[in-house]
Amino acid sequence: MKIFKPLMAVLVIALLSSCEKKTEFAEYLVARPLIMTKADFITSVDILPPQPIEESGKIYTYQDMIFINDKYEGIHVIDNSNPASPQKIAYISLAGTVDISIKDDVLYADSIRDLVLFDISDISNIQEISRMENVLQDNVIWPFDADIIEWVEYDYENELIVGWETTTEIRRVEQTRNFGGLDDIAIAENADSGGTGQGGSLARFKIVGDHLYAVDQTSINLFDISDVSNPVEGQDVFVSFDIETIFNRGDHLFLGGQRGMYIYDITDPAFPAYVSEFQHGTACDPVVVDGDYAYVTLRGGNTCGAVESGLYIVDISTIENPTLAVQYPMDEPHGLGIKDEKLFICDGASGLKVFDKTDIMGLTTLDVFSDIVTFDVIPQEDRLLLVGDDVLTQFTYTESGLNLLSSFALD
Q: Which domain of life is it from (predicted)?
């Protein structure tokens, strides 16, 4: 028997080596919840001097100021009176925030399920006005871009999830099969008159007249802000189970969801009324509107959905019956915006893509800025603002295209 042991050892080693070679490895974006005690959550608001950014989120402009969300952490305040040389001037520490909107020097921000108000009339002395608790009932933000969500146990009575930490990790493909995603557990925003700011297509807050519309995962949350510092909560309107973004044109709200675009009439602003919807395969979905068309970017893969990424152009000339006009492939689109006949798409790591949309059936590529990572965009009258990969980029418009005005690192 001893004669065969070396042979058996060789066979075992060979077998193991063969299995090891067949094992596939891949990169995965892994998300883990950030836990905070409820006591710390309520008292975590603070106005601080400029801070380095952890993860750039959405962008919002108001007068000569730019506000950039630091996902789940706070809001960076930037003086943009000289766009060639923007300057950080303050940081609003606010746990669980991803969205803001501003009217008449009052900043409204989400903090998980709470709505928090700040007086920014003196930008050098920002003051918290009030906190409205539990008015955004389904406002828990899920990490839709993650491949894997690793859950952790926490004390539901005394703690809450305020956000997500994401890391890129190399794992065996076989080992990840037991981990699931969520199924298992124009101008981007038309600026209003009356001192209202402007956000991008990824916004979930929108001020129209005297009302703030804040969409959570399932509903439109309404607030009468005719007294800007004393909002009055209205009746929530249930929409679906997958709402992500909001856009306004005239008397209509266009809501982007993972399964479709939903259109609501706000002729009576206190009572949004369902008009119609356009259904598509499951994907992350912001929308902007210009003329007779809605422009929808769908980002597939990860927990965003199963469809391939692309741009869907939807005919809304008959608003009660939106229909797909044409679609174009994209890589990993996020925010988008429109100015005149130009369409700007933030295509993630593939950069900023600029199209001439004069003929929607044959979009013409005008330019591709592949050397920048893009997330959210705001086309203003005189310049284009982009945020992505912790950098604020600004371009000016020229007859020949876009000229770089400034690139400002947020770290």
A: Bacteria
